[in-house]
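Before going further, learn to read the protein records used in this course. The integers have meaning only within a learned vocabulary of local backbone shapes. The record below shows the convention in full.
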Amino acid sequence: MVYTVLVSGTFQKSFRKLPKNMQDKIRKHLQELKEDPVTSRPHCDLKVLQDTDPKKHRLRIGDYRIIYSIDNKRVNVIELIKREVGYNRL
């Protein structure tokens, strides 16, 4: 099953501020979400975030976290946060 990945304006704003090498790494990981946004595997650390409604997931890439939700065949990328910021805003 192939998913469509849609990114929010909030994500894009944070993404543009990153160094080029980190942007490339994140793009590669977003491609992984197209194949399977639920199952964690080597080089694709995924996790369901507890106590979120609607259910949200996170993808860990080094010190960064991508927060997203899944709706049918769409992966809605909500936010890109730095690890030390935490998940308090979610």
